[in-house]
């Protein structure tokens, strides 16, 4: 069985004895192993990035951009290969994997605009004969730690921006589906990226802790569950690093009585069960006004029943969950929901599956009459389980969503412009959809939630991404002539 190795200085790097399993989630079999980095291996990657930083920082914008354009070209040509790797290790269906790559490509395209986005500001004659300019410079070695659910897109949210801005990177992808990261780093090397600019280490807590504490690492971009995000934020900042740590989510979709219920049901199914619910922007709670709840639940259940579940390479709608352990955890929530008294409108614990072997499958599950103290409501389940909470008014719906500790994404379904506008204004969530169930911003805006969905204040990609990966420097200058002579210890004033 092969073992996936690290990628340091544009070459494979091996030497670790510890390994982890990479499964094919559709068959349940171990497909290969992945090396798990020791502290020493992680330090080797940091050292490579640290050594490459001065040269890359001083590489012209023209040259950096030319390499980024080439990477974009290669990724566009070969996106099918990357999608196949994602499906093989994550399990999501091929179309969905291609969609993930397309959304990542948007950020590569943004990074091709780096010269424009990195332009500074200039004030001529701020004081007599004095000019002031501000410029943005790279922060240095940037660590990126990513989750299993988007093995290509989430790394692509960060490394193209970091690299275009002149930083060097150590990427530690999820050890559950790590091959996409190596593939992308190798492709970037083919595009002409110099040694040490993008390094990949595979590993777990040992590697993450090294990245969080090593003094050569300047910034940390983390995406994962809320408890680990909190840990990464507090440890990284305590060690003097700039940190953005994106956490978990529980995304609500509020459906008002004037909405087109057929369209709303389509969207709830797409956003609830796409990628088997393993999306940080998945809809996991439908908030329905009492007057339409019966009809809406019936329409959602009728559609969810028709989803074909199976191996993502076979043209089905929904693939398996990432591991057997995670599948069992999600099934445990279904038991807990039944025990707590929620109405099981669709039971996904059994059903026909188009796959070989015994993959990590669950079918779509829908609970109605969910109460806010039930674990199926309070916890992020991260699986194909949709809860319906009934409310008696629009205000009650807004209050419910605002009471959630998470604030990643939310959506309202309505044809009433006034109601939608009030929702946009009052809702305490970072990304809002109006008749759009998964409002992941386009590459030239920025992605980020509020509350327990993000620790740190800069969002990913877009203008905020460039801010995160650069530091502002302001230069005040004049060219001295004899009239500037003389001693004056007063605080400089402008005139
Ligand atoms: P996870 O928190 O288990 O792992 C994320 C990363 O942290 C991985 O690289 C993992 O190796 C590392 N890690 C795991 N345990 C660690 C520990 N004890 N110490 C240090 N590092 C550790 O998350 P996951 O299961 O891979 O991904 C799913 C989670 O990610 C969900 O909660 C989902 O909502 C969240 N997510 C959030 C966003 C967002 O933008 N807010 C996007 C995607 C996923």
Describe the structure.
- One of its GO terms (biological process) is L-valine catabolic process.
- Its EC number is 1.2.1.27.
- GO terms for molecular function: methylmalonate-semialdehyde dehydrogenase (acylating, NAD) activity.
- It comes from Glutamicibacter uratoxydans.
- The protein has 495 residues and is an alpha/beta fold.
- It folds into 2 domains: 268 residues, Aldehyde Dehydrogenase, Chain A, domain 1 (3-Layer(aba) Sandwich); 184 residues, Aldehyde Dehydrogenase, Chain A, domain 2, CATH 3.40.309.
- A 7-stranded mixed β-sheet has the order 15-16-17-14-13-19-20, sandwiched between helices. Strands 10-9-8-11-12-22 form a 6-stranded mixed β-sheet, with helices on both faces. A 3-stranded mixed β-sheet has the order 1-5-4, covered by helices on one side.
- Strand 9, helix 7 and strand 10 form a beta-alpha-beta unit.
- Helix 1 packs across helix 8 and helix 2 crosses helix 7.
- The longest helix has 19 residues.
- It is globular and about 85 Å long.
- The mean pLDDT is 98.
- Bound molecules: nicotinamide-adenine-dinucleotide.
- The site of nicotinamide-adenine-dinucleotide (NAD) has 27 residues, from helix 8.
């Amino acid at each position: 069985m092969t073992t996936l190795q690290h990628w340091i200085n544009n070459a494979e790097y091996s030497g670790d004895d510890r390994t982890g399993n990479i499964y094919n989630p559709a068959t349940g079999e171990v497909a290969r192993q992945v090396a798990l980095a020791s502290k020493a291996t992680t330090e080797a990657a940091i050292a490579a990035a640290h050594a490459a930083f001065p040269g890359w920082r001083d590489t012209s914008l023209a040259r950096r951009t030319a390499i980024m354009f080439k990477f974009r070209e290669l990724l566009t040509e070969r996106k099918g290969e990357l999608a196949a790797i994602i499906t093989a290790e994550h399990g999501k269906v091929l179309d969905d994997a291609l969609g993930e790559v397309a959304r990542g490509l948007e950020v590569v395209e943004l990074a091709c605009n780096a010269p424009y986005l990195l332009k500074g500001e200039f004030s001529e004659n701020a004081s007599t004969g004095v000019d002031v300019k501000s410029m943005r410079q790279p922060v240095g070695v940037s660590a990126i730690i990513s989750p299993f659910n988007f093995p290509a897109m989430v790394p692509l949210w960060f490394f193209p921006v970091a690299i275009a801005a002149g930083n060097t990177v150590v990427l530690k992808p999820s050890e559950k589906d790590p091959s996409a990261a190596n593939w992308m780093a190798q492709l970037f090397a083919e595009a002409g990226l110099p040694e040490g600019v993008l390094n990949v280490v595979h590993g777990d807590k040992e590697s993450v802790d090294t990245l969080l504490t090593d003094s050569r690492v300047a910034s940390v971009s983390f995406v994962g569950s809320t408890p680990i995000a909190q840990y990464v934020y507090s440890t990284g900042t305590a060690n003097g690093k700039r940190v953005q740590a994106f956490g978990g989510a529980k995304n609500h979709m509020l459906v008002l009585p004037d909405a087109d219920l057929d369209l709303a049901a389509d969207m709830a199914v797409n956003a609830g069960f796409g990628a088997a619910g393993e999306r940080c922007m998945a809809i996991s709670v439908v908030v329905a006004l009492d007057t339409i709840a019966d009809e809406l639940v019936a329409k959602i259940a009728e559609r969810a029943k028709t989803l074909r579940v199976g191996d993502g390479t076979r043209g089905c709608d929904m693939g398996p969950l990432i591991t057997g352990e995670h599948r069992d955890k999600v099934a445990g929530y279904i038991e807990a929901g039944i025990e707590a008294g929620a109405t099981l409108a669709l039971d996904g614990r059994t059903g026909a599956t188009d796959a070989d072997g015994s993959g990590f499958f669950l079918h779509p599950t829908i609970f109605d009459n969910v109460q806010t103290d039930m674990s199926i409501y309070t916890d992020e389940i991260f699986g194909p389980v949709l809860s319906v909470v009934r409310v008696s008014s629009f205000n009650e719906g807004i209050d419910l969503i605002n009471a959630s500790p998470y604030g990643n994404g939310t959506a309202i379904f309505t044809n009433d412009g006034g109601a939608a506008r009030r929702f946009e204004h009052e809702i305490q969530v970072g990304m809002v959809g109006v008749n759009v169930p998964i409002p992941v911003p386009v590459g030239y805006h920025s992605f980020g939630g509020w509350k327990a969905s993000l620790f740190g204040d800069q969002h990913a990609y877009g203008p905020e991404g460039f801010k995160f990966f650069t530091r502002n420097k302001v230069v005040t200058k004049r060219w001295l002539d004899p009239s500037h002579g003389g001693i004056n210890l007063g605080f400089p004033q402008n005139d």
